[in-house]
Structures are given as C-alpha cells and as structure tokens.
Amino acid sequence: MEPLHTALGAIKVLRCSVGQVFSCLANGVRADHGEEGRDAKFLSELDELLSSVTQHLRDVEQAVNSLSQPPGPFTLGNTSFLSQECTQERQALYSQLVLSYKWTDKIHEFSNLSVALLSQNSLKRSYTNSSTAKRRRAPTSSHNVPPQNVDTVISSIDRQFPDMNISVSRPFGANAVLQVTLSRVLQAVVALKGLMIEWVVVKGYGETLDLWSESRHKVFRKITENSHAAMLHFSSPTMPELAVRSFMTWLHSFNTLFSDPCKRCGNHLHSALPPTWRDFRSLEPFHEECKH
Amino acid sequence: MGVTILQQFPMLENRTGPQTIDFLTKRVVALGAIQCGQFLVDCDTYMSTPSLGPQRTVHVMHNSEQPASVFSLLESSGKTIPLVADGLFDLLMLKMTPIYTKKQTKVESKGPRFELADFCIKLGSVTISQNFKGVLVEVEYRPCVVPATCWDLLREFLQGFLGSCVPSMPPQYLQPRMNEIYQPMDTIQQYLEHFSMYRKASGVLQFN
Ligand SMILES: [Zn+2]
C-alpha cells in the first residue's frame, strides 16, 4: 500500500509542475520581470520550471519501478458488476461508493474514540444502573419528576434567598422554565427537564429575557458560559434536588458581581471585566484569568 | 442604560484642548478601546421675562445617546424640575419666545466616543459659545443599573486612565441617589452640574 501512495503522490507533484510550466507560458513576460533583460529572465524562469518537471518525472519513474505486481485479481465484491453498467448516468456510481465507504470507515473510527473518551468522563448525565437485578430499587429518575415535586423544590429554594426571585412557567408542557431575578444585578432563564437543568441564559437587569438570544453585555455572556460549566458540575442524576439547589446557591453568589473584587488579584477589573467566575465550593469571586 | 460618571480632566499649562483629547485618546486606545463615532451633549438656557413675577430658568438639553429625547430642567425657587420629552419640545420652546428668552450662551460637550468591553468612554471638549473651556470625560458601565453596586469598579476604571484626579467619593449629584435605578436624566443632571461650574468659572452667567 505504502509504495502505491508515494507513486500517486509523485504523479500529483508532476502534474502540478507541468501545470506551472503551461501557466508560465500562457502569462508570457510579466511586469515583475522588470525592464532590463526581461526576455532572459523569462527564459531562465521557464528553464527552471522545465528542469523541475524533469526531476519530478524521474521521481515518478522511480516510484513506479518500486511497485510490485499485485498477486492476483482484486476482490471487489459486488462492485465489480458496476463495470457492466451501461446506463450513462450510473457510471459515476463507483466513486460515490468509495466516498461513502471512506465516510463509514471514519465514523467507525471516531465513534470508537468517543466511546473510549466518554466512558472515562465523570460528567455523565444519564442514569445507568449497572448494579445487579437483586439490588435494584425504583430508579431515581431526574428527568421524570411530577410537576408538583418540582414546584415544591423551587419554592423552597425561592424562600431560601430573599433577594432572589424565582417564578415558574411551563410553556412547553410538563417541563418547567424558571425566571430568576437576582436583586438588581442580573436575570436568568433556567430550563428544566424534570429536575435536571438543561439550559441557562444569563442577562442583565432590564434586558428582555428569552431562552435563545444572548445578552448584549459581554459580562453576562461570560457568566452564561460559566453557568453552563456549573450546571454540568453540579448535575447529579441520583440527587437531582441537591443539584438544582447547589446550582441556585452558586448563581445567587453573583449578587455581588459588580461590588466584590477578585479574591486573587484584589482588583475589580481585569481586561475590563469584573470577576465573572465563582468557585464551586467556596463561592469566592475570581477573574477568568485568576481562577487557576 | 448603565451607570454613568462624569469627570473633569485638569488642563495643563502647556497643553491645548485638542492636545489633551489626543493624549487621553492614546491612553484609552492603549487599553484596547475602539472608537465608535462621535457624541454631543448641548445645553440652551432660557430665562422668563421679569414682568411675569419671580424669574425662572429653563435648561433645554440634548444627548446624542438618546437622539429622540429632549431634556428640560426648570429651575424655580431653589428647586429643579426635570422633564423628558420628544423632539417636538424644541418647537414648543420656539413658540414660547414671548415668555422665555434664549441666552446667547450655548454650552456643548463633544468629541470622540469609545467602546471597551461593556464600558463606553466619551472624551468631551466643553465649549461655551464656541470658546473652549475644558475637558469633560464621561464613562458609562452599561451592564449595571444601580450606582452604589458599581461605584468602586467605575472608580478603579476611571483612575486607570485619568490618574489621581478621580476623587474617592461619587459625584455630588449622585450621592443621594446611589441606591436608585440610574436613568438617562441622571446623566443630563450631571452635565448640567458641570456646565454650571464652567459658566461660573468664566463669569459669563450668574445663577441664583
Ligand atoms: Zn483577578
């Protein structure tokens, strides 16, 4: 296989350099050859190109010589019947077939890699019970919780933080969408699936709130990004209520977004942004650049 | 509408107005700010005719940041009554010429406008009837709406490129309003406060 590849590569290079010769000839004498002795310059350029063609031709010959005769006829399976196809429009079928073969091959390879990666990843969001049938109890499902339970959890979180107002609406059937207003600092929409946080958008006080558009302020776009990291960090399929509660506590710590300086550098601003990161455990404020 | 702070930048003996603007432009650009057009805040002052009892003053102001609004401030017996109206207010003032006469001293602050992340910076040259009076720097922090929560952050930003001329206390006008939601009128009131100072310093106009 390897010598065949080099041979094909060498042919490509040869084609390229022949193409250069022709384009040079077609262009003729150009402005950048200057006034003085331009014919001589043109000829020497052409000469150079021709010698590189010779060189590449030699490469091709060498590569071809090192090829060995295939031991027998290739087994092409059913595709060999394609050569017997006589309708005009179906004759291009072979190259398409090769292309899709390559694609499936790649998909196979990529999916193997991603399986290996995902199985190491701790951010698993679906609950897979690997324990034996004997020990199995009713599986706690985080995404299939009755609406009343969700309402109870949310209203208890709402009571826990007097300066954070949470209202529940259900625009898409059973799943709740929370509108959070954190004093006069920020607003957020949190989309839930059962008790699992699916999506968060953070915006400024007074901006129109919806699930899809982002804030017009850089600082809230950054916090939206960080809250996505937080929702994954706190996600816990076995203790969904705790996950939502932890996330809300983390979000609540942004009520000092504009007034608290960074814990590490002591300044309010870094790259013209306030500390947009809150530590998951201590809830201490840090700049994006100071958090490590 | 975010919180806005106005700050005079002291003039040096050997520097003209345009040179000072140039100097500050270089500093904000070095911070990474990008110039986004120009800005203009102007103020016309009208006085009521003395025959109509105690004299009143009306300031009519425009801000290019709120192009569809006209701001007016009526000064009457020690109180200031603010009003936000639309563009027709200018025409109304023209109709009022028998009652309110326009003073010849138009005050303006204009110059380049910059954006840096969520900050908006305006470097204004103040002129009274086309005479240069000084440099007035405006900084707006747009994500925040309550002055008390972001004053320290704004002061740090202002000190970053204006240096030691930035005081540790918020502007006089804002001090009793630190916990209220900031409105465009608050910016106008700050401009009026500074314009009045420039006027007094030149002795062109006397205020009650
Ligand atoms: Zn920092």
From TrEMBL, chain A:
InterPro entries: Mediator_Med27. One of its GO terms (cellular component) is nucleus. It is found in: Nucleus. Residues 128-147 are annotated as: Disordered. The keyword Transcription regulation applies. The keyword RNA-binding does not apply. Its main location: nucleus. It comes from the Eukaryota. Keywords: Nucleus, Transcription, Transcription regulation. PANTHER family: 34 KDA TRANSCRIPTIONAL CO-ACTIVATOR-RELATED, MEDIATOR OF RNA POLYMERASE II TRANSCRIPTION SUBUNIT 27. Belongs to the Mediator complex subunit 27 family. This is Mediator of RNA polymerase II transcription subunit 27. It comes from Ranatra chinensis.
TrEMBL record, chain B:
InterPro entries: Mediator_Med20. It is found in: Nucleus. Its main location: nucleus. Pfam families: Med20. Keywords: Activator, Nucleus, Transcription, Transcription regulation. GO terms for cellular component: nucleus; protein-containing complex. Component of the Mediator complex. Belongs to the Mediator complex subunit 20 family. Component of the Mediator complex, a coactivator involved in the regulated transcription of nearly all RNA polymerase II-dependent genes. Mediator functions as a bridge to convey information from gene-specific regulatory proteins to the basal RNA polymerase II transcription machinery. Mediator is recruited to promoters by direct interactions with regulatory proteins and serves as a scaffold for the assembly of a functional preinitiation complex with RNA polymerase II and the general transcription factors. This is Mediator of RNA polymerase II transcription subunit 20. It comes from Ranatra chinensis.
